[in-house]
Structure of glucose-6-phosphate isomerase:
Amino acid sequence: MPPFATPPVPPMHVGFDDRSGGMSPSGPVLVRRMSDLRGLYADQAAWTAALESDDVVYEVASSPVPELEGELPQSITTILPGRVGGEFHMTKGHMHTRPRGEIYLGLSGLGGLLLFDGERPQWIEMRPGSIGYIPPHWAHRSVNVGDEPYRFLAVYPGDSGHDYGWVAEHGMGHRVFHGSGGPELRPFTFPAG
Ligand code: S6P
Ligand code: ZN
């Protein structure tokens, strides 16, 4: 897997492939399968059943721009469509370790950005061309609410850091389920059963 570039990072053009979501030139690529997502979905029995095929749930392709202070790394996340116990495929979700904002740009598919500051859950619908703004101190999780891959570009300060423990401890305020009239936001519950 290609590593991040070493500073000083030169100005660069970064292309991306519509079909794969890959970046060129490429930095590291992260693949999260169902087995990497223990404790993420509310319905643990449904998650265990999904382990049999252990499908890829999402991939994060990075450009070579490193996660270092002063740099602006970019990544493209592709969440494949699917549900576990009625709950849509989603990212793990994290809080930035330092108070740093982030910008998402919807590229394809239908998704949503779930934000939580520990008290107030917020939901931003994302479609191609949508810009989602994540202020500092808001944990964020992305959800694919459609039938196609949902893909978005993220741009964030290089010294943001990723705190997954905060989400494990506080939850995300809401969970997003398939409903007859579209995505249904329900109060967050920690995994059971
Ligand atoms: C990084 C940015 C995204 C996510 C990616 C995967 O700050 O928010 O690149 O890392 O969407 O989500 P997660 O929660 O598994 O890191
Ligand atoms: Zn982030």
The pocket of D-sorbitol-6-phosphate (ligand 1) is lined by residues 60, 75, 77, 91-94, 102, 140, 142, 154, 156, 160, 162 (CB under 6 Å). Helices lie at 44-50, 164-170.
